[in-house]
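Provenance

Sequences were taken from public entries as deposited. Structures were produced by running a predictor on each sequence independently, with no templates supplied. The record for BLOC-1-related complex subunit 7 from Mycteria americana is shown for reference.
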Amino acid sequence: MAAGGAADAQARFGHSVKGLLTEKVTSCGTDVIALTKQVLKGSRSAELLGQAARNMVMQEDAILHSEDSLRKMAIITTHLQYQQEAIQKNVEQSSNLQDQLNHLLK
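Predicted structure for BLOC-1-related complex subunit 7:
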């Protein structure tokens, strides 16, 4: 009987160890899956950050181009104002000349 009890205890111990190993393997498998998901999520985050950085550089270039265009437009506006003043002076002078011509022709 003692041999039968020992064999029974050994079988229970074997089943217990197998059960623990199965639990550990399942737990490790779950951990590997969670780790894989986290790595993929981190990879996606890095990808999104890279895309955001590229978009930011493109926006910065657009802003710099806009600033340059605004400076050029300010210069053109100044030149147009000078030309307008010159035209106004010429119109005034031509009116004076026309008045003088009319006066001389009378």
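The radius of gyration is 45 Å.
The chain has a mean pLDDT of 85.
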